[in-house]
Design brief:
The protein is mainly α. It has 16 helices and no strands.
């Protein structure tokens, strides 16, 4: 966000980009929500992760097109095209920092780290190169960073705790289960059921924390989907993308609250700024719902 502000973007647009693009992570591997779906629904985790590649790329490209159009409309500053020498020099300057995602993804896929352990190792690595190599953080600055991190983490954990309590109330009242049963009473047509489930998941995502919703609903819905001919891998991507969009929707949109804290903006301003970003996200959701091949092409290619 700081880089966007330094480049001349306004604070609201920078916050909206940060929030909207954050949902790509749980779609493109490695994805914890897809892993949990696979475990709860007894679905191939490998197929789910590979199936998320094309939808994730579609989300990225659609957001890039929206940002390009918005930047042209608002006449944001344009940087001159760099020369080859500048590109090479910048690459070598940035190489130690670029190793960080390699440690993260490589450590998880190789089995050396769990996702949580990989995050901790990356933080330690980033701290070392920031303090000793790039010399961008002083010891006084490090203390301030730790204080801000504690404050931000406490806020996010408080939101998660409140969402978990709300989810517990919904579970006790059996509301998600009752609604799911009513969805499958509507029709036996797979496409009709998926379209109705999209609306169902979008509503659920507005009020429930995503991992709780996956844990509760997956064992119920996967067998029902299989009975009407819906591929469980396709269903998993549709479900997870719906719930990730829920992270951007009030009133329990954890990404929105986190970005509000980092950007130091009122909640209403961030919600208003993110409204245009719902269009490409929902467009991709509709496309992967109507065309299962967008999800299933790569898994079928790999596992044939």
């Amino acid at each position: 966000m700081k880089a966007m502000l330094d480049a001349g973007y306004d604070r609201e647009f920078s916050a909206a980009i940060t929030a909207a693009s954050s949902i790509i992570g749980p779609i493109i591997p490695p994805s914890i929500p897809l892993v949990i779906f696979g475990v709860m629904g007894e679905v191939s985790i490998g197929a789910l992760l590979i199936g998320g590649i094309i939808p994730g790329l579609m989300i990225g490209i659609s957001l890039m097109l929206l940002i390009f159009w918005t930047a042209r409309t608002k006449e944001y500053p344009v940087h001159p095209r760099p020369r080859l020498g500048e590109v090479v020099r910048s690459f070598f300057d940035a190489f130690p920092a670029l190793v960080t995602p390699g440690i993260l993804i490589g450590g998880i896929f190789s089995g050396i780290f769990t996702p949580t352990e990989a995050a901790a190792v990356c933080v330690l690595y980033a701290l070392i190169i920031s303090v000793f190599l790039y010399r961008e953080i002083s010891w006084a600055g490090l203390q301030q960073i730790m204080v801000e991190t504690l404050r931000d983490s406490a806020m996010i954990l408080f939101i998660i705790a409140c969402a978990a309590l709300y989810a517990w109330v919904l579970i006790r009242l059996r509301i998600p289960i009752i609604l799911a049963e009513k969805v499958f009473a509507v029709s036996n047509n797979p496409l009709t059921i998926l379209l109705v489930l999209n609306l169902f998941f979008l509503v659920v995502g507005c009020f429930m924390e995503s991992l709780a919703a996956i844990t509760i609903l997956t064992p119920i819905l996967v067998p029902l989907c299989s009975q009407v001919g819906i591929d469980p891998v396709h269903f998993g991507l549709v479900m997870v993308l719906n719930l990730m969009i829920g992270l951007l929707t009030p009133p329990v949109g954890m990404c929105l609250y986190a970005v509000c804290r980092v950007a130091d903006l009122p909640f209403e301003q961030v919600v208003k700024a993110i409204l245009p970003f719902y269009v490409p996200l929902l467009a991709v959701l509709i496309l992967i719902t109507l065309f299962p091949g967008l999800v299933l092409f790569l898994p079928r290619l790999v596992y044939r």
